């Protein structure tokens, strides 16, 4: 745990003192009696506790103050596997952010299924790769350049048209829009083709994200994830701008995290219940600590170590922040209807338990994941009215019966309410927290 930049409880004035010389014997006895009463009274007060533990850190005190919402879940770590990182942000006189993180039950060596949160690193790597290609002799290539994907191997598919995209032509920029606004799985798979498994994981390790492994596509059973499909980028007239042949990754990426087997049973492809733990050994992994670190690099690139950064341009950051922060109804391409894509659709913190329309005074720049009973969100939250900002990351398992792949998960009963209330509790605390310097949030205001 890092030290707070501005201590919440500064030390008392060491020059202060009490003078008793002029007090009468009665006054002295009365004072002693009062002090003794106060001491006994205070010692009888129950300590602020959450899930049976004394609350010490700001995060623990937030959770303890809302024990009715959280204690029944946090008291069962073996069932719900909750992990939380709460990062306070304090600006100095030059608006440089300084971070103080607080943790609940966080263990980067313990596995949870990250689901769609892995789409965030692929979006960043894809934009970075385009920048590198532009610098190495392909200046006409941009995130909006149309591409086509061809097939060479079993289970591969050609992809030439995207009816949701401008001009019906797929592009890396359009895939990234769909990833952040609606967590599109096909868009993720296209970025996987563009990057390749070897490039993804080697680059992330070089950047210091050692607890992350992205080794497979989504919903692509039968595909060999070591191979990518050929991809060709073209201009508006159909001329080839850059072409990438099939890539092959010979590295066997091994998940170093523990407890990859979960539950006591699972439903197989024949809809039969198999009374054995469900094995996640061949799935992607993305520790909560890496998520929070990567979000810092995305939101505050100049305030993180150079190793952790991505080679992105100012326009790339504006593009990412815009589509991370808007609600689906505010997206230009694709156009999303509010019946299926409400404001809290991919905003689990604060809004995940309601379908109400939000006014936009609070924005959540985030990436969520939901699958196999696990809900995860990593977010930078800003309140423009109250000048509040903080980072929050959390995951919760909503599968108390221990059976996987049966689509019987307690998302609505447990998961969404927990994450929404957690976001609101931290927001309420941040709204009252004193700051020496008010943050300038202009860069994150979204123009429509």
Summarize this structure as a short list of keywords or feature phrases.
12 helices; alpha+beta; 448 residues; five-stranded antiparallel beta sheet; three-stranded antiparallel beta sheet; disordered N terminus; Beta-lactamase
Description:
- With 448 residues, this protein is an alpha+beta fold.
- The chain has a single domain, classed as DD-peptidase/beta-lactamase superfamily (Beta-lactamase), CATH 3.40.710.10.
- The chain is built from twelve helices and 17 strands.
- A five-stranded antiparallel beta sheet has the order 4-3-16-15-14, sandwiched between helices.
- Strand 15 and strand 16 (388-397) form a beta hairpin.
- The longest helix has 22 residues, at 411-432.
- The protein starts with 24 loop residues before the first helix and ends in a 16-residue tail after the last helix.
Proportion of residues in extended strands: 15-25%
Order of helices and strands: HEEHHHEEHEHHHEEEEEEEEHHHEEEEH
CATH homologous superfamily title: DD-peptidase/beta-lactamase superfamily
Measured distance between first and last alpha carbons = 39 Å
| Tertiary shape | globular
Biggest sheet details: 5 strands, antiparallel
Strands, count: 17
Structural class: alpha+beta
What fraction, in percent, of the residue positions are helical? 25-40%
Spans where pLDDT lies below 50 across 5 or more residues: 1-23
CATH topology: Beta-lactamase
Known CATH architecture: 3-Layer(aba) Sandwich
**Strand sequence of the main sheet, in spatial order?**
4-3-16-15-14
* Mean pLDDT level: 91
> How many distinct domains?
1
What's the CATH class, please? Alpha Beta
Number of helices: 12
Give the radius of gyration.
25 Å
């Amino acid at each position: 745990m890092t030290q707070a930049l501005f201590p919440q409880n500064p030390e008392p004035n060491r020059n202060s003192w009490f003078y008793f010389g002029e007090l009468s014997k009665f006054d002295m006895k009365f004072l002693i009696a009062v002090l003794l009463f106060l001491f006994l009274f205070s010692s009888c007060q129950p300590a602020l506790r959450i899930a049976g533990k004394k609350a010490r850190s700001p995060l623990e005190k937030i959770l303890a103050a809302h024990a009715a919402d959280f204690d029944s879940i946090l008291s069962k770590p073996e069932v719900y596997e909750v992990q939380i990182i709460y990062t306070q942000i304090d600006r100095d006189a030059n608006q440089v952010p300084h971070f103080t993180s607080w943790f609940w039950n966080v263990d980067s060596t313990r596995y949870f299924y990250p689901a769609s949160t892995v789409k965030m690193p692929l979006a960043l790597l894809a934009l970075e790769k385009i920048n590198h290609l532009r610098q190495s002799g392909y200046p006409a290539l941009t995130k909006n350049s149309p591409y086509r994907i061809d097939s060479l191997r079993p289970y591969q598919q050609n992809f030439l048209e995207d009816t949701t995209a401008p001009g019906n032509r797929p592009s890396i920029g359009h895939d990234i829009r769909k990833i952040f606004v609606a967590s599109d799985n096909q868009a993720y798979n296209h970025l996987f083709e563009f990057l390749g498994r070897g490039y993804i994981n080697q680059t992330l390790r070089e950047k210091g994200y050692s607890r992350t492994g992205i080794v497979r596509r989504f919903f692509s059973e039968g595909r060999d994830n070591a191979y990518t499909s050929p991809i060709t980028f073209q201009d508006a007239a159909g001329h080839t701008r850059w072409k990438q042949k099939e890539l092959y990754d010979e590295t066997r990426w091994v998940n170093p995290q523990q407890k990859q087997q979960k539950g006591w049973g699972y439903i197989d492809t024949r809809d039969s219940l198999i009374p054995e733990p469900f094995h996640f050994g061949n799935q992607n992994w993305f520790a909560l600590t890496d998520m929070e670190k990567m979000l810092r690099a995305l939101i505050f690139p100049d305030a993180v170590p150079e190793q952790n950064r991505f080679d992105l341009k100012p326009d790339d950051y504006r593009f990412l922040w815009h589509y991370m922060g808007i609600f689906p109804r505010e997206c230009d391409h694709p156009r999303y209807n509010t019946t299926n894509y409400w404001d809290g659709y991919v905003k689990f913190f604060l809004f995940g338990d309601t379908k109400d329309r939000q006014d936009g005074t609070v924005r959540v720049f985030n990436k969520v994941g939901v699958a196999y009973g696990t809900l995860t969100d990593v977010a930078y939250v800003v309140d423009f009215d109250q000048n509040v900002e903080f980072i929050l990351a959390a995951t919760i398992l909503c599968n108390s019966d221990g059976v996987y792949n049966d689509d019987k998960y307690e998302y609505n009963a447990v998961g969404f309410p927990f994450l929404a209330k957690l976001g609101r509790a931290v927001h309420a605390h941040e709204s009252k927290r004193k700051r020496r310097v008010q943050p300038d949030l202009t860069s994150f205001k979204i123009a429509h």
